[in-house]
Amino acid sequence: MTESMSPREAKNRFLNHHESEYSANTLQEYGYSLDRFIEWLDEQNVSDMNRMTGRLVSDFAEDRKQNVKPATLKTDLDRVRRLMQFCESIDAVPEGIADKIISPQLAGKDEARDERVTEKQAEAILDYLEKFEYADRRHLIFYLVWHTGCRSGSLRALDVQDFTYGPDGPELHVLHRPHAGTPLKNKEKGERIISLNDEATEIIETWLEYHRPPVEDEYGREPLIATSQGRISKGALQRNFYVMTRPCWYSNECPHDVKVSECEARTHHGASKCPSSRSPHAGRRGAIQRFLNNDAELEDVSGRANVSREVLKKHYDTGDKRELQRRRRRSLDKF
């Protein structure tokens, strides 16, 4: 027998149940997906989870399909299914509901998004930054993403003290600090030491000496990527990346034939509306692609970027047929 429970209470219980299992970012992403489902249930006047049916979830999927890409729909339905599995375990929905949720099978082109910063774009952006914003915050952000392939969460997590000189040279220590505001996606498994080249080292040292504001965050830590308010927020980091990858910003040209003065993406907060602008994640994808195109070993790229070999090959190695052929040739010519 099912017991009465509102959709929002079910979501909150589900997230609380997985709090020790998932990172803060993963919980937040689950919350976003489930909020869309709950808002849709509100529109259908469904206020009790024991009214849940397979047909209801199917109707949600049909409605959602009109507004999102296949990969997003699959993610949302997979998360709704996990919610239903949890709700079945606490007698909040009829038994068997989770098994009725059919998640779409993705075609190859939909399975892994190919959005990335290309080497050509990165070179143009870095040329601009070196000339006009050398060792300033945006230069540091872009260079570290491109040089290390790190996630934005790892970049935000860095403190000034995490930049050190080890026995093999300058390095960054990426640490999981969930109780001090900077958890890593893969928790302790995401901790690692990243070696730095001379250029990255010089940029960091110049930033620390001349440009970094002397601030602490709310935990008394000294963030490496700092603003006048403290540690840079995730949103601010993303907005800066969208600005830097807008072609009109680094080349003064628009590939979309839009007058810059009339473009809705010309402002700092509107930069993401530019079709050519890219997120930090697209920068990470491009960086990993560059490592692979230059014959870096999968194991080394896996360790540096903190991503498994399987995920690396499926979601990040997005070379076209010609790139893959050239890579195979370089690898196999010795035989």
What would you note in describing this structure?
This protein is mainly alpha-helical and 335 residues long. Helix content is 51%, strand content 5%. It is built from 15 helices and 5 strands. The protein has a 3-stranded antiparallel β-sheet with strand order 1-2-3. Helix 7 (137-148) crosses helix 12. Residues 109-113 have low confidence and may be disordered. Residues 5-88 form the Core-binding (CB) domain. One of its GO terms (biological process) is DNA integration. Residues 112-329 form the Tyr recombinase domain. One of its GO terms (molecular function) is DNA binding.
Number of strands: 5
Straight-line N-to-C gap? 67 Å
Structural class: mainly alpha
Rounded to an integer in angstroms, the radius of gyration calculated over CA atoms is 23 Å
How are the strands of the largest sheet arranged?
A: 1-2-3
Which oligomerization state do the chains in this entry correspond to?
single chain
Topology pattern, helix = H, strand = E: HHHHHHHHEEEHEEHHHHHH
- Kindly identify the CATH topology of the largest domain: hpI Integrase, Chain A
Helical amount? 40-55%
- Count of all domains: 2
GO molecular function, one term: DNA binding
Protein name: Site-specific recombinase XerD
InterPro entries: CB, DNA_brk_join_enz, Integrase-like_cat_sf, Integrase_catalytic, Integrase_recombinase_N, Integrase_SAM-like_N, Tyrosine_recombinase_XerCD
Organism: Natronococcus occultus SP4
